[in-house]
C-alpha cells in the first residue's frame, strides 16, 4: 500500500468514526450549517455541512453542492500552501457537502470589539486591531485571494490574540487577479464595520493605510476602492 493510499484509508476510518461523535450546532445559515465535532481523539474540529435543498431538483442540487464544497476546500488548501491564515483543511466529502477543518479556539473580531468597548484602552486596542486587519487582508489580496464576505464575524482571533487573525468561511471566496473584486472586498469590510461597530468607522482609514504599507502594488486597488465606495454612496442616496 502506498503512502497516499494509506493516508486515504486512515481518513476513511476517521471519517466513519466521526459519525458516531456528538455534533454541536455552532451556526446555521441559509447555505450551510456549522458544527463542532471531532475526527481526531480529544481534538475538536469544525464541520461545515451544506444540507440538501429540497426545493431544487436533486441532480442539480447535488452538482451545485459538490461544486461549491470542492471550490471552498481547494481555496482553503491554496491558502494553507501560501501560508495565509485560515483553518487547516482536514477532510472533504463533496458528495455529502461536508468539509472538516481546524477548530479555531478564540473569538470573532466582532465579539472582541464589543468586549473592549468599555475598556479604558479601547481606542489603542482598536487601532492596533485595525492595523492588523489591513495587513492580513493585504496578504490575501497580494496572492489574488478574494474572501467574498469580509466581515468581522468571519475573522477570528486565535486564543483572543489580536495579532493572530484567522479568516474563516470562504464559501463565497475565489482566486482572481481582478482589482474590482479586491476593491469590493474592502468595501464590504468597511460597510460591515460601519453597521456593526459605528464607533470604529473613522478608524477604517488605519486599515487602508496598513493595507497600503503591506502591499506595494495596492495603489491601483485603493483607487478602484474609491470608485466602488462612490458608487455605493450614490446607490444609498437614490435608495
TrEMBL record:
GO terms for cellular component: cytosol; EKC/KEOPS complex; nucleus. It comes from the Eukaryota. It catalyses: L-seryl-[protein] + ATP = O-phospho-L-seryl-[protein] + ADP + H(+); L-threonyl-[protein] + ATP = O-phospho-L-threonyl-[protein] + ADP + H(+). Gene3D superfamilies: Phosphorylase Kinase, domain 1, Transferase(Phosphotransferase) domain 1. Its main location: nucleus. Its EC number is 2.7.11.1. This is non-specific serine/threonine protein kinase. GO terms for molecular function: ATP binding; hydrolase activity; protein serine/threonine kinase activity. Belongs to the protein kinase superfamily. BUD32 family. It is found in: Nucleus. It is an enzyme of class 2 (transferase). Keywords: ATP-binding, Hydrolase, Kinase, Nucleotide-binding, Nucleus, Phosphoprotein, Serine/threonine-protein kinase, Transferase, tRNA processing. Residues 20-239 form the Protein kinase domain. Component of the EKC/KEOPS complex that is required for the formation of a threonylcarbamoyl group on adenosine at position 37 (t(6)A37) in tRNAs that read codons beginning with adenine. The complex is probably involved in the transfer of the threonylcarbamoyl moiety of threonylcarbamoyl-AMP (TC-AMP) to the N6 group of A37. BUD32 has ATPase activity in the context of the EKC/KEOPS complex and likely plays a supporting role to the catalytic subunit KAE1. The EKC/KEOPS complex also promotes both telomere uncapping and telomere elongation. Pfam families: Pkinase. One of its GO terms (biological process) is tRNA threonylcarbamoyladenosine metabolic process.
Amino acid at each position: 500500500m502506498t503512502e497516499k493510499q494509506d493516508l486515504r484509508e486512515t481518513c476513511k476510518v476517521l471519517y466513519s468514526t466521526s459519525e458516531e461523535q456528538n455534533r454541536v450546532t455552532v451556526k446555521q445559515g441559509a447555505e450551510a450549517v456549522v458544527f463542532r465535532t471531532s475526527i481526531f481523539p480529544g481534538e475538536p474540529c469544525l464541520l461545515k455541512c451544506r444540507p440538501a435543498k429540497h426545493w431544487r431538483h436533486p441532480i442539480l442540487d447535488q452538482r451545485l453542492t459538490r461544486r461549491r464544497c470542492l471550490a471552498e476546500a481547494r481555496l482553503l488548501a491554496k491558502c494553507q500552501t501560501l501560508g495565509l491564515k485560515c483553518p487547516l483543511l482536514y477532510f472533504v466529502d463533496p458528495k455529502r457537502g461536508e468539509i472538516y477543518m481546524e477548530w479555531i479556539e478564540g473569538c470573532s473580531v466582532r465579539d472582541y470589539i464589543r468586549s473592549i468597548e468599555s475598556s479604558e484602552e479601547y481606542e489603542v486596542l482598536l487601532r492596533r486591531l485595525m492595523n492588523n486587519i489591513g495587513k492580513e487582508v493585504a496578504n490575501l489580496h497580494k496572492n489574488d485571494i478574494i474572501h467574498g464576505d469580509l466581515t468581522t464575524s468571519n475573522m477570528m482571533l486565535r486564543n483572543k490574540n489580536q495579532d493572530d487573525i484567522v479568516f474563516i468561511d470562504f464559501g463565497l471566496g475565489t482566486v482572481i487577479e481582478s482589482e474590482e473584486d479586491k476593491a469590493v472586498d474592502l468595501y464590504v469590510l468597511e460597510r460591515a464595520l460601519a453597521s456593526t461597530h459605528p464607533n470604529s468607522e473613522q478608524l477604517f482609514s488605519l486599515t487602508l493605510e496598513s493595507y497600503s504599507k503591506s502591499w506595494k502594488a495596492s495603489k491601483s486597488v485603493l483607487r478602484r476602492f474609491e470608485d466602488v465606495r462612490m458608487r455605493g454612496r450614490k446607490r444609498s442616496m437614490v435608495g
